[in-house]
From TrEMBL:
Keywords: Amino-acid biosynthesis, Histidine biosynthesis, Hydrolase, Methionine biosynthesis, Multifunctional enzyme, NADP, One-carbon metabolism, Oxidoreductase, Purine biosynthesis. GO terms for molecular function: methenyltetrahydrofolate cyclohydrolase activity; methylenetetrahydrofolate dehydrogenase (NADP+) activity. This is Bifunctional protein FolD. InterPro entries: Aminoacid_DH-like_N_sf, NAD(P)-bd_dom_sf, THF_DH/CycHdrlase, THF_DH/CycHdrlase_cat_dom, THF_DH/CycHdrlase_CS, THF_DH/CycHdrlase_NAD-bd_dom. It holds the Pfam family THF_DHG_CYH_C. It comes from Paradevosia tibetensis. Homodimer. It comes from the Bacteria. Belongs to the tetrahydrofolate dehydrogenase/cyclohydrolase family. Pathway: One-carbon metabolism; tetrahydrofolate interconversion. Residues 140-287 form the Tetrahydrofolate dehydrogenase/cyclohydrolase NAD(P)-binding domain. The keyword Nucleotide-binding does not apply. One of its GO terms (biological process) is purine nucleotide biosynthetic process.
Length: 293
């Protein structure tokens, strides 16, 4: 292994401690307890784990946590009614409706219903627009976490070539905006990109966000590149026993670690940063709602 291992777990711990400090100041100096409401519809096992972790960490940093677990057959109208109720509540500063949603609920309608002031995911058109033109507000959690790790690893990102693999609204597109604000030269590659390996080989920074286990190969990388692996893929692990699984990223870590200059592991890289950034965003929205920023 020649690459520096980027320890997202340790960085997220430090970030949560800083968030807890902000929460304490909001409480003691302004009488505000930031509150985060998380809504989950149905029983998707991965979502349940995420939501439980979100609620636990929200309380750990001193914020109020409001968790709504709705049955799988909840109507779209009922979810929208809950969102409107949360929009109006003064003790709620952040609203997150966990994706994926059951098929009877249009996720875009839910996004449109969330008050932009409380949009800690940075999903609403208003928050996305604010992020694009550089106005204060929350930033997309996973891309923000990636950016923090990059800055911590590389210092200034100015002038670097960044290749993002994946064009989702959740990661690829907002990641590109954040990196543009850092003065990177940004390429978004996707499933129709021609000769992906040669595009990736130009990159000083590679962000892999495709959801395909071990897709990015070591010989796609420019030696010394910084590699941020957003993928969290569960794959069979027969070596651990019958029916066992393990988490792997979108990058072939075992080989890439000998070519990259720095790389995030999976698990323990980007994953822990997402919730920490969600908590940081809730401090941001609580501060903006109360005109403290
Ligand atoms: N499902 C997986 N990741 C996320 C996220 O960041 N926000 C929401 N709302 N749902 C998700």
């Amino acid at each position: 292994m020649t690459a520096k291992l980027i320890d997202g777990k340790a960085f997220a711990e430090g970030l949560r401690a800083r968030v807890a400090g902000h929460v304490e100041r909001l409480k003691t100096e302004h009488g505000i307890t930031p509150g985060l409401a998380v809504v989950i519809v149905g029983h998707d096992p991965a979502s349940q784990v995420y939501v439980t972790n979100k609620a636990k960490q929200t309380v750990e940093v001193g914020m109020a946590s409001f968790k709504y677990e709705l049955p799988e057959d909840t109507s779209e109208a009922d979810v929208l009614a809950l969102v409107h109720e949360l929009n109006a509540r003064p003790d709620v500063h952040g609203i997150l409706v966990q994706n994926p949603l059951p098929p009877q609920i249009d996720p875009l309608k839910v996004i449109e219903a969330i008050s932009p002031a409380k949009d800690v995911d940075c999903f609403t058109p208003d928050s996305v627009g604010r992020a694009v033109i550089g106005l204060p507000g929350p930033r997309s959690c996973t891309p923000l976490g990636c950016l923090m790790l990059l800055r911590d690893t590389l210092g200034s990102l100015s002038g670097l070539n960044a290749v993002i693999i994946g064009r989702s609204n959740l990661v690829g597109k907002p990641m590109a905006q954040l990196l543009l604000h850092e003065n990177c030269t940004v390429t978004i590659a996707h499933s129709r990109t021609k000769d992906l390996p040669s595009v990736v080989r130009q990159a000083d920074i590679v962000i892999a966000a495709v959801g395909r286990p071990n897709m990015v190969k070591a010989d796609w990388l420019k030696p010394g590149a910084t590699v941020i692996d957003v993928g969290i893929n569960r794959v069979p692990a027969p070596d651990k026993g019958e029916g066992k699984t393990r988490l792997v990223g979108d990058v072939d870590f075992a080989a890439a670690k000998d070519v990259a200059g720095a790389i995030t592991p999976v698990p323990g890289g980007v994953g822990p940063m997402t919730i920490a950034c969600l908590l940081a965003n809730t401090v941001t929205t609580a501060s903006l709602i109360n005109r403290l920023l």
